[in-house]
Amino acid sequence: MSETPVKQQSTAAFYGQAVASFGVALGATAVGIFNLQTDAWVRAFLGIAVLYLVTSAFTLAKVIRDRQEAGQIVNRVDQARLEKMLADYDPLQKL
């Protein structure tokens, strides 16, 4: 009666596209900052800001994923408890 949820797995092409997209975006930003006609300290500040933004984005994605996975585990445990209670319940049993 219980249905095991199908785990969504990314394809290799999707993973490759995501990595390539990230690399292109980071590279384009780095080239843009490097070619700015401004002082070196402004370029350095923008470079550090981009690195901070990237690390914050990775951290946020990990926190969201961990929260979602924790919710799925709790839901599976609750579902298993409910199925066990229903399987053990006998309406014809005398009290």
Largest sheet: none
Structural class: mainly alpha
Distance between the termini: 27 Å
Count of individual beta strands: 0
- Using the CA coordinates, give the radius of gyration: 25 Å
- Compute the average pLDDT: 85
How much strand content do the residues show? under 5%
Count of alpha and pi helical runs: 2
- Global shape: elongated
The helix/strand order is HH
Which residue ranges are poorly predicted, with pLDDT under 50 across at least 5 consecutive positions?
none
Roughly how much helix do the residues carry, as a percent range?
over 70%
Transmembrane segments: 12-34, 40-61
Keywords: Membrane, Transmembrane, Transmembrane helix
Pfam families: YiaAB
Protein name: YiaA/YiaB family inner membrane protein
Spell out the key features of this protein.
elongated; 2 helices; mainly alpha; 76% helix; 95 residues
What does this structure look like?
The protein is elongated. The two termini are about 25 Å apart. The mean pLDDT is about 85. It is mostly helical and about 100 residues long. About 0% of the residues are buried. Helix 1 packs antiparallel against helix 2.
Quick recap of the structure?
With 95 residues, this protein is an all-alpha fold.
Element layout with pairings:
Layout: H1 12-34, H2 40-88
Helix pairs in contact: 1-2
Keywords: Membrane, Transmembrane, Transmembrane helix
Organism: Streptomyces althioticus subsp. attaecolombicae
Pfam families: YiaAB
